[in-house]
Design a protein that fits this description.
Elements lengths: L3 E2 L1 H8 L3 H8 L7 E3 H12 L5 H12 L2 E3 L5 H14 L6 H12 L4 E3 L5 H6 L4 E3 L3
Parallel strand pairs: 1-4, 2-3, 4-5
Helix pairs in contact: 1-2, 3-4, 5-6
């Protein structure tokens, strides 16, 4: 099963960033996965962009084709644990990133991102986080 792709990785890949395209080829035979938070961030960016309407529609169709892990009532406990562990080590993340990690942990999914801000979480949480270097 493919890992969850962070929003920045999706954006970089769709804009043709070379390092991310190579990574995604490893998972080309499987549908990608995201969290509902990543979907929100991606769709928000599309809707507020100056892209042509046909390009927006294509991107929205693409995001709708992905597996989406939802935010549930149970997720709140995982997210609170993530926040608590990271804050206790002086490395809290933003709220949306905390929610993404909680959803990944709840669903036993790895996370792939190009955001080095996740580095402190990689060693503190029960989750594999792969950080793609730009």
């Amino acid at each position: 099963m493919p890992p969850v792709l962070d929003t920045n990785l999706l954006i970089d890949t769709l804009s043709g960033h070379p390092s991310n395209g190579m990574y995604l080829k490893r998972y080309a035979s499987e549908p990608a996965a995201i969290t509902v938070i990543n979907k929100y961030e991606f769709v928000r960016g599309i809707l507020t962009s100056n892209l042509a309407e046909s390009r927006k529609k294509g991107l929205l169709d693409f995001i709708d084709s992905l597996t989406v892990y939802e935010l549930t009532s149970n997720t709140a406990m995982y997210c609170a644990e993530v926040y608590s562990k990271l804050k206790g080590h002086g490395s809290p993340l933003g709220e949306l990133d905390t929610l993404i990690l909680g959803i990944c942990i709840e669903n036993h999914q790895d996370l792939v991102t190009s955001d080095s801000g996740f580095q402190p979480a990689a060693g503190l949480l029960d989750i594999h986080i792969e950080i793609i270097r730009r």
